[in-house]
């Protein structure tokens, strides 16, 4: 059989021994062409895409035997022709077949074709390089292939980058000295999702979106393997890195390559280690930060190096930790934290070195402190779990960390205590999630913290809050741990309770000695149950000798929260906390809390009364946080709990009123001691209680659901003050939406309300907020109709279907705090403020459900519709219609008022309309029918403009004087209501003009009115005292409209209807006339520096924008010669305006007004350039330029250069 085969084929050419070889070859070439045509024609069939690709690949696979029949050149040419005609998926298969068919004489043709193909589709670069690597290319073609790969190194897919990089470094050979600089320039160690990635690299084809770190790691591994295989590449890289002189020449690659070479050892390893140390000590921090931030996967791989290399990496990270640059510190901690999870044993080998991280505690932010202690917690758990596999030094890390935390907790410094609390909380969390053997260690840490609570009350409060968050977030906490925490919190809470027997407290039987040697007889306040077993012992605690015992009241709220979470996890009810809801408060006697009683007390006892009331307020707020949201209890029903919580809310309003009175008589240092620096809140105006409220724990999201519960109160007058209190608190927390604060929270205060949780609660609150707002407006109208008279007493709020408990439920001498007259203004202002803040937040623009809830709640149909099931708002058109309806509602509040509303309430309503207009604009941006949406949007804007104009036309009551008593006003005088309200006036002018249907025409009208003093009769907001504010507002609006007109002209220069261009020319003429009038307005106010400065600013901006309109005017005059009239009008008005601005500049130079003279050179350059621009547009023949004299604002001629008098020499004079 073997002999038969040898006879069929000749040894040289592989042709059959019988017959004519040329005939066989022609037949083979014909067969090859037929096969290729079949592949090409298969693409024209009706097969599905996957079936078609499978068919084409099956046909193409038959080419494997054609090389024995057909000539290589013919078949290669046909395959290259097929490469242009097939799809990208089939192109990969064609490229893979090329090495099996192509002959040596066609290598250049194949390389040239593959280079052109990769220029069209860079995704084919990898199969092309794989095919070229299988060919025996000569040196010239090899260099060309390497160059093709380098040219596309910065545009290739990140998934293909490792193989491309490996090809470049392995096949460069003797050209490595030229190749290495190009690789450094084009190789970016960046993942596709990294925000630092340039825009050209953001959408790389073929990059898997779910694993950017893996692609980067593969690139790093390819670089390391290529360097390991090519010693010449290592030498070239070292030579290139040593030749770099400045930090601006270095790349991220230059940081990682020395580490790779150092891991290889040998001569290159030693030199690379020295180079890396120099980079760490002398290099740029920004470069080292870029090498670490976002590259944790590479650091993870470096953990597999030898001990020496690992220590070098840790030293580099430690250098970043001490840099005091927040991004570098966070990046280094993130890298260490990832290594602690993936390679804990490798880090434990350097435990002694890692303990040096604790030396930088003062420079860490709260977030970085959490990362630090998460790192050490992971290592402690790993060392405990490994047991015998760890050394004694590795086990010591837990002992050293425990000693460090104890030292921090026992420190007298508040920041050190916070560090100890955060570290202990992180460690306890990780121990309880670790092996069962770690639970005992966690209990020991918690027990130690509870025992030292008196030494650090603020730190203990933070610790309890962290444990409560842990129980709320992690549902896998063992039940025995939850039970143990519940018992520990309950035992600690019992120390603040006093036993009560038949309404008599044992601690109240005798007088209590308070600091200073005084005795006070305590009194039980406001028990909600006749048989309450305990009382909250505030006064006895404050009477204790040691300050630590008195300050222990600071962490009672945190204890309540911890116990609440533990009870709900353990039994699902709050049965053990029912007594805290109904228990009375042991406080000083009621007669000491009145104004007369406080006046008769010495200063020390006044401070004691104020402090007792402050702790009473914090207790009642924690009661709202604990029992809001209808938590299950053992004996009380949901309705009974709601009734008791509403009563506590009423009492809270009364206690805050008492606290405000006590603060007026307390020493000034008391408010400063109870407050922390925080953002100004709306409730702080005119009262000191707002200052100390910032030091209290905030209300949680379930507490705000009481806004809806208050609608069930039968007496409308009884729910005004509680609703105002909740809405003011809600407005304060909504001010933190879309903002992030880096300020650390002080000890003893809870972190601000989570934004996500607050946003989830708002859809349930908004309908109730609308009902409260409508009810407040109706009640205000009723009080106005009755002449302002109201009842002196307010009954306890009684919910429907609920029974009131027996006994005195409210403070008898502080019922005015619950009176509706004082609360209605706060309720209306706070409700409108909440709507304004929510409508202007980023969340309502991205969350369609929240947006729909807001718009449905304020539909114009009425409160009944808002309280019912909210209709679905589908589509952009319906959303805009809902926005228009909500604006109609607020327009009625601002314009057609049937109630006695002050300036603040109406202004908040107008600003809420502005927030809705911005929301409507954001919604209309996604509309398919732009014309219809634009019509609705113009209607919405018109409502805002009308409301702002109506507010400007009214003369309001004067604003209260700064430092004046609450309710004190200035003497009423015409047009004095706008004094002190300049920012609001400027905003209203902006709303009025910016959203007017014809802003340019209205701006011209107003400019003419103020120039002739006609605005004084038409608008109450305009007067001599407010002229500077008005002038600046008009200048800002004119600049805005002029810049918008310039942008519209730029767009119309390329495309635009003829009527649009005509409107633009008319608006340009109006704007120039308004500019002329505003500029010449300075003649009437030549001594008003604010007006003069704004005029020069307007002239510069107006002239510079007009210069950029030159191309539009040239095209306009060429297409429509009649437009020359409009352009000449623009030039005429502009000339008058710039002439007035030049006069202002001359006056400023004479007066040596530095605020204006600094702008004079820029103004003169812009004004002189206008002459050249006018000549270019309308021709020199049509332009007349005259020489004018320098005149001041009064029209008097003045010298262009100020001349100083020359002093005379007395001797010369005498000689003459």
From TrEMBL:
Keyword line: Isopeptide bond, Nucleus, Ubl conjugation
Nucleotide-binding recorded as keyword: no
Compartments in which it is found: Nucleus
Gene Ontology, cellular component aspect: condensed chromosome; nucleus
GO molecular function: DNA polymerase binding
A UniProt-annotated Pfam family: FancD2
GO biological process: double-strand break repair involved in meiotic recombination; homologous chromosome pairing at meiosis; interstrand cross-link repair; mitotic intra-S DNA damage checkpoint signaling
Coiled coil: none
Region (Disordered): 1-25
Family named by the database record: Belongs to the Fanconi anemia protein FANCD2 family.
PANTHER family cross-referenced by the UniProt entry: FANCONI ANEMIA GROUP D2 PROTEIN
Name of the protein in its database record: Fanconi anemia group D2 protein
Organism listed in the record: Elliptochloris bilobata
Taxonomic path: Eukaryota, Viridiplantae, Chlorophyta, core chlorophytes, Trebouxiophyceae
């Amino acid at each position: 059989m073997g002999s038969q085969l040898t006879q069929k084929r000749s040894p040289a050419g592989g042709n059959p021994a019988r017959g004519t070889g040329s005939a066989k070859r022609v037949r083979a070439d014909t067969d090859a062409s037929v096969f290729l045509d079949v592949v090409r024609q298969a693409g024209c069939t009706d097969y599905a895409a996957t079936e078609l690709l499978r068919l084409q690949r099956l046909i193409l696979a038959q080419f494997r035997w054609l090389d024995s029949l057909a000539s290589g050149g013919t078949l290669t040419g046909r395959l290259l022709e097929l490469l242009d005609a097939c799809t990208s998926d089939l192109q990969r298969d064609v490229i893979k077949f090329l090495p099996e068919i192509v002959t040596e004489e066609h290598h250049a043709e194949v390389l040239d074709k593959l280079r052109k193909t990769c220029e069209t589709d860079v995704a084919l670069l990898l199969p092309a390089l794989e095919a070229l690597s299988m060919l025996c290319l000569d040196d010239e073609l090899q260099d060309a292939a390497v160059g093709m790969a380098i040219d596309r190194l910065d545009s290739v897919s990140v998934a293909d980058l490792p193989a491309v990089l490996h090809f470049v470094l392995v096949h460069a050979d003797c050209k490595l000295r030229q190749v290495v600089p190009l690789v450094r320039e084009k190789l970016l160690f960046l993942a596709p999702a990294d925000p630092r990635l340039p825009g050209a690299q953001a959408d790389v084809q073929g990059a898997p979106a779910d694993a950017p770190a893996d692609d980067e790691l593969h690139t790093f591994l390819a670089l390391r393997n290529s360097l390991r295989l090519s010693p010449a590449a290592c030498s070239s890289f070292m030579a290139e890195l040593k030749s770099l002189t400045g930090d601006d020449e270095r790349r991220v690659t230059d940081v990682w390559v020395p580490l790779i070479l150092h891991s290889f050892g040998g001569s290159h390893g030693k030199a690379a280690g020295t180079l890396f140390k120099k980079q760490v000590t002398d290099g740029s921090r920004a470069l080292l930060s870029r090498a670490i931030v976002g590259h944790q996967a590479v650091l993870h791989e470096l953990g597999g190096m030898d001990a020496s290399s690992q220590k070098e990496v840790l030293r580099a990270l430690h250098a970043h930790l001490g840099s005091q640059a927040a991004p570098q510190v966070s990046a280094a901690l993130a890298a260490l934290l990832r290594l602690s999870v993936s390679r804990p044993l490798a880090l434990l080998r350097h435990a002694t070195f890692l303990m040096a991280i604790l030396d930088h505690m003062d420079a860490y932010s709260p977030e970085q402190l959490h990362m630090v202690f998460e790192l050490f917690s992971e290592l402690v758990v790993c060392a405990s779990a490994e047991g015998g596999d760890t050394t004694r030094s590795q086990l010591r890390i837990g002992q050293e960390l425990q000693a460090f935390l104890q030292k921090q907790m026992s420190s007298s410094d508040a920041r050190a205590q916070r560090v100890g609390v955060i570290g202990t909380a992180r460690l306890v969390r990780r121990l309880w999630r670790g092996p069962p053997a770690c639970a005992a260690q966690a209990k020991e840490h918690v027990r130690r913290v509870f025992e030292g609570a008196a030494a650090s009350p603020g730190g203990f409060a933070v610790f309890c809050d962290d444990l409560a968050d842990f129980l709320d977030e992690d549902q896998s906490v063992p039940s025995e741990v939850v039970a143990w925490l519940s018992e520990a919190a309950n035992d600690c809470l019992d120390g603040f309770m006093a036993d009560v027997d038949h309404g008599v407290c044992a601690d109240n039987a005798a007088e209590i000695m308070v600091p200073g040697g005084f005795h006070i007889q305590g009194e039980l306040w406001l028990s909600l149950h006749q048989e309450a077993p305990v009382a909250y012992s505030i006064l006895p605690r404050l009477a204790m000798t040691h300050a630590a015992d008195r300050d222990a009241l600071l962490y009672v709220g945190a204890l309540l929260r911890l116990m609440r979470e533990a009870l709900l996890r353990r039994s699902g009810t709050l049965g053990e906390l029912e007594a805290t809801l109904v228990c009375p408060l042991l406080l000083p006697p009621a007669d000491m809390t009145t104004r007369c009683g406080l006046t008769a007390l010495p200063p020390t006892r006044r401070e004691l009364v104020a402090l007792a009331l402050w702790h009473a307020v914090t207790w009642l707020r924690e009661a709202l946080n604990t029992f809001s949201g209808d938590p299950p209890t053992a004996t009380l029903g949901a309705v009974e709990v709601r009734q008791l919580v509403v009563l506590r809310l009423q009492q809270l309003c009364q206690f805050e009123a008492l606290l405000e009175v006590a603060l007026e008589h307390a020493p000034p240092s008391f408010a400063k001691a109870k407050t922390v620096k925080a953002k100004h809140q709306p409730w702080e105006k005119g009262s000191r209680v707002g200052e100390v409220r910032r030091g209290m724990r905030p209300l949680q999201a379930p507490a705000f659901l009481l806004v809806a519960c208050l609608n069930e109160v039968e007496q409308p007058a009884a729910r005004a003050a509680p609703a105002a209190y909740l809405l003011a608190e809600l407005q304060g927390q909504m001010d933190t939406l879309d903002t992030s604060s880096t300020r650390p929270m002080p000890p003893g205060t809870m972190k601000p309300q989570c934004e996500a949780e607050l946003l989830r609660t708002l859809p349930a609150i908004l309908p109730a907020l609308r009902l409260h707002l409508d009810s407040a407006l109706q009640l205000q109208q009723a009080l106005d109709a009755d002449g302002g008279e109201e009842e002196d007493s307010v009954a306890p709020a009684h919910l429907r279907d609920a029974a009131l408990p027996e006994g005195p439920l409210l403070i008898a001498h502080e019922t005015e705090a619950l009176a509706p007259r004082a609360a209605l203004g706060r309720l209306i202002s706070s409700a409108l403020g909440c709507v304004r803040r929510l409508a202007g937040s980023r969340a309502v623009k991205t969350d369609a459900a929240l947006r729909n809830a807001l718009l449905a709640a304020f539909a114009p149909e009425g409160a009944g519709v808002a309280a019912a099931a909210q209709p679905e708002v589908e589509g952009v058109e319906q959303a805009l219609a809902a926005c228009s309806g909500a604006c109609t509602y607020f327009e009625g509040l601002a314009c057609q008022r049937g109630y006695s509303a002050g300036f603040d309430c109406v202004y908040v309503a107008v600003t809420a309309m502005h927030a809705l207009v911005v929301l409507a604009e954001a919604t209309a941006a996604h509309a398919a029918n732009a014309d219809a949406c634009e019509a609705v949007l113009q209607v919405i804007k018109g409502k805002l403009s009308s409301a702002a104009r109506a507010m400007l036309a009214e003369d309001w009551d004067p604003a209260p004087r700064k430092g004046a008593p609450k309710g004190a006003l200035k003497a009423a005088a015409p047009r004095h209501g706008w004094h002190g309200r300049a920012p609001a006036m400027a905003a209203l002018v902006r709303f009025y003009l910016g959203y007017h249907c014809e802003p340019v025409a209205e701006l011209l009208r107003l400019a003419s009115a103020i120039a002739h003093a006609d605005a004084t009769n038409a608008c109450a907001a305009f007067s001599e005292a407010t002229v500077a504010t008005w002038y600046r507002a008009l200048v800002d609006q004119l600049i805005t409209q002029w810049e918008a007109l310039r942008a519209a002209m730029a767009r119309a220069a390329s495309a635009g209807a003829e009527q649009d261009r005509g409107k633009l020319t008319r608006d340009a003429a109006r704007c120039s006339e308004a500019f002329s009038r505003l500029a010449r307005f300075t003649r009437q106010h030549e001594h008003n520096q604010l007006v003069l400065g704004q005029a020069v600013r307007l002239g510069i901006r107006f002239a510079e924008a007009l210069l950029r309109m030159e191309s539009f005017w040239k095209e306009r005059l060429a297409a429509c010669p009649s437009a020359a009239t409009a352009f000449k009008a623009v030039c005429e008005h502009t000339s008058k305006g710039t002439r007035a601005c030049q006069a202002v500049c001359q006056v400023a130079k004479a007066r040596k007004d530095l605020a204006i003279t600094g702008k004079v050179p820029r103004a003169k350059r812009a004004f002189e350039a206008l002459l050249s621009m006018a000549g270019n547009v309308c021709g020199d023949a049509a332009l007349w330029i005259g020489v004018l004299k320098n005149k001041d604002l009064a029209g008097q001629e003045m010298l262009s250069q100020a001349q100083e008098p020359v002093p005379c020499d007395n001797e010369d004079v005498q000689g003459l």
